[in-house]
Amino acid sequence: MLSIRSCEARCILTTLAIALAAGTHATAGDTVGWRTDGTGRYPDARPPARWSATSGVAWKVGLPDWGNASPVVVGGRAFVCAEPATLICIDLERRRIAWQKANDDLTDRKPKTHSTNGYSSYTPVSDGRRVYVAYGLGVVACCDLEGNRTWGLELAAPDHAYGGSTSPILVGGLLVVRFRDLVALDPATGRERWRVKTRQAFGTPVIVELDGVLYVVSPRGDIIRAADGRLVAKDIFGPDADKLQHRFNSPVINRRRVYMVDGYNKQKVGMAACVELPATARELDAGNVRLVWTNTQLLKDRYYASPVYHDGLVYSATKRGQVVVLDASTGAVVYVERVRLGGTVYPSLCLAGNAMYLGSDSGRSIFFEPGRRFEEISRCELEKYRGTPVFAGGTVYVRGMDNFYVIAAHRDQDREERIP
Predict the structure, then answer these.
(1) pLDDT tens digit string along 402-415?
(2) Which residues contact 162 (CB under 8 A, 6 or more apart)?
(3) Cβ(366)–Cβ(341) under 8 Å?
(4) Predicted pLDDT at 242
(5) Tally of CA atoms within 13 A in the half-sphere of 144 that contains its CB
(6) What is the pLDDT of residue 5?
(7) Which residue range(s) make up the domain with 86?
(8) For the chain, how big is the Rg over CA atoms in Å?
(9) Is residue 165 part of a domain?
(10) Is residue 115 part of a domain?
(11) Would you say residue 414 lies in a domain?
(12) Per the omega criterion (within 30 degrees of 0), is the bond before 84 cis?
């Protein structure tokens, strides 16, 4: 077990979010879910520097309906979601849909949602043997890798008229989901293990481990001990963050520091904060956390994309496509750059090899150099999509509105431009 891990979450407007999370340690080999290991970091990736609908696409497969959830890749399979509550398994070797399982039979209700968000903005999570899914209908289900549903249940309708997008996470042998309360379920049976009331948010919680004890940090800044659901700290990002109406994305973690970047309350304030956790679980159980800094002077916009931490900087983006980079030590703005992608920035930021990635629901995306000065590397274009791509070696997996794409660098490295 690694000492610190995080599982992000997503932020899509009207609720996607994207959520979450970055850290210096990943959970590779443990679980696969939102942004793969939850960090948004793919240091071994070498994707093509450019792609389009007619260039760089190795293959694609048509999907039965749209969806905002990010893809999850498990071995030779990719899992994506479709409206209103369908789980789709794509055979990556045979390049076709292997099976699809509808889960809308678990409820008769149709909660309110926004037309952009729909019901399938929750990225699945897998332990390598089973896949767990949640949908804005208020249902949760578990399927094996062959598409057999082992259990399914109805919990509660999301607590916002725009729906929800908090992706399920696996932590300490529990499946944690959120529609209204944060609820831990037994992954084998779906039986409820604990429940904690939390304020409305669209992002996905992150996971922290201290002294072998696992904790869940909510986008609102509540810290819950995973084993028993005990609330050990509340509103850790301070009173300014507590005023924010929504929490669209997820926090990001580096070592013992937790960062949040979000905004757009009634006063249209953008802000960021950094909290340092104590060195031991005993201290955290006593609620000992330290607010290191806050910055309440950020661009006044919504921040649907979950941020990424890398090499002393926190990378974030507004919904209108302005990259906002902060010094992780002080919270000071390092630079702001409008990248002009068009549309709305729902996909979360990622570190792909030695480049930062940012996309928009226009289908346009950009790679840029990490560092204290903005330097564009390249631009890409595809069909409209809102979920965050997955990067694996020289391959990129994208869940478009109509198609699932596998984008791959050419084998001839001398002739194909790649992200180094």
Answers:
(1) 999 999 976 654 44
(2) 13, 14, 15, 112, 113, 114, 117
(3) yes
(4) 80
(5) 3
(6) 37
(7) 8-408
(8) 19
(9) yes
(10) yes
(11) no
(12) yes
State the pTM of this model: 0.91
Contacts 24+ apart (CB under 8 A), 52-59: 52/380, 52/381, 52/382, 53/381, 53/382, 53/383, 56/380, 56/407, 56/408, 56/409, 57/405, 57/406, 57/407, 58/395, 58/406, 58/407, 58/408, 59/95, 59/406
CA distance 187 to 419: 38
CATH number at residue 226: 2.130.10.10
Residues in the chain: 420
Is 413 part of any domain?
Answer: no
What does the pLDDT read at residue 188?
A: 97
Task: Using DSSP, state whether 105 is helix, strand or coil.
Answer: helix
pLDDT, tens only, 328-381: 999 999 999 999 999 999 999 999 999 999 999 999 999 999 999 999 999 999
Amino acid sitting at position 186 = D
Q: Which long-range contacts (CB under 8 A, 24 or more apart) does 131-135 make?
A: 131/72, 131/74, 131/79, 131/87, 132/168, 132/170, 132/175, 132/187, 133/81, 133/85, 133/87, 133/103, 133/168, 134/166, 134/167, 134/168, 134/177, 134/179, 135/81, 135/84, 135/85, 135/103, 135/104
Asked if residue 175 lies in contact with residue 216, where contact means CB atoms within 8 angstroms, the answer is no
Token pair belonging to 247: 């929490």
Query: Which candidate, 375, 259, 276, 270, places its Cα nearest to that of 328?
Result: 259
